[in-house]
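Consortium newsletter contribution from the modelling node. Members have asked for a concrete example of what our holo predictions look like. Here is one, prepared for the zinc ion complex that several groups have been discussing at recent meetings.
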Amino acid sequence: MSRIDSEARSLLLDRREALRRAHPGDGGSLLSDGIPVAVVADQVARELAEVDAALSRIAAGSYGACSSCGGPLGLQRLRAMPEARFCLGCSGRRPADD
Ligand SMILES: [Zn+2]
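And here is the predicted structure:
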């Protein structure tokens, strides 16, 4: 496992723990600020899925490559956003996806 892989892996594992704690669970229907719990739970679940997908890419040895063009994501981008799937160029072309 390369250095960036293991660095990203520990960031992602921390992030997964934080997301699990942030998950509002199934109780109640509104948070204190009026946001439906289902919406927050949805966002948290989506982020958890991204984090899990990134961890699988690390395990598969394909971490750090853009899922669209196959180019390198770059150290800075991976450090800022370890679950990123697309390079800056590709994520700019797919704003809804990244
Ligand atoms: Zn790309």
